[in-house]
Amino acid sequence: MDGTRVVLVRHGHSVAQEEGFLSGHDTCKGLSDLGRKQVEALRDRLGRTGELAGAAALYASILPRAIETAELLAPVVGGHAVRTDCGFCEAHVGEAEGKPYAELLEGLPEEWDEERRPFEGWETWREMGERVARSLDATIEQHLGQTIVIACHGGVIVHAMQRWLALEAPNRAGAAWFAPANSSLTEFRGAPNPYRSGTLAVELVRYNDHAHLAGRDL
């Protein structure tokens, strides 16, 4: 992975967020008007800075909100066609799909358990982590030494953080939680640690970078 840049972009604000329901493969309605403005602000920033102009590939999950995000960014990240991969999707939530957030929160247990299925057909946290890891590994293998941009979801970014920073499950009792902002950038780079041996040869370059939204009502 040495020299490879993996830039994870959380999709813009979605219609599901606006309407307050849990969306999935069958119910995702894409970006809201706010979400498009957020991603356009990121696109304009990247166009000015050229920080991802040399990207070798642009990926997205198969969910419309991620695909729309990637398509809006394509002109400033190499002009690539968007490649889709369900491995970069948010959690597969089974029978919970389409339900209002308020109803879901009532059904979630207080105690965190990475093996629990909150609703029938919902993949466990561990299963999602394994799915995300497989797609990350396969994509990196195809683009060693290059820059990859992936439009994805908050859960995917959290799993990448958990895996490459060797964190325990971040939602367990007594642990801090984190949630990247809509249209934010999180970047990892393959590189050996120049200060200590024995660490993973992956550097966290930035997390939750949403400077393009600063000072704006987005």
Q: Please, could you describe this protein's structure?
A:
The chain has 218 residues and is an alpha/beta fold. The protein is built from 6 helices and 6 strands. The chain has a 6-stranded mixed beta sheet with strand order 3-2-4-1-5-6. Helix 2 runs parallel beside helix 3 (64-73) and helix 5 (125-142) crosses helix 6 (154-164). The longest helix is centred in the middle third of the chain and has 18 residues, at 125-142.
Quick overview:
The chain has 218 residues and is α/β, with parallel strands linked by helices. It has 6 helices and 6 strands, in the order E-H-H-E-H-E-H-H-E-H-E-E. A 6-stranded mixed β-sheet has the order 3-2-4-1-5-6.
Number of helices: 6
> Would you list the SSEs in sequence order as H and E?
EHHEHEHHEHEE
What topology, given as strand order, has the largest sheet?
3-2-4-1-5-6
Instruction: Give the DSSP E fraction (strand runs of 2 or more residues).
Output: 15-25%
The separation of the N and C termini measures 35 Å
Shape designation? globular
Poorly predicted ranges (pLDDT <50, ≥5 residues)? none
Average pLDDT number: 93
Work out the number of β strands.
6
Structural class: alpha/beta
Helix content: 25-40%
What is the C-alpha radius of gyration, as a whole number of Å? 17 Å
What composes the largest sheet? 6 strands, mixed
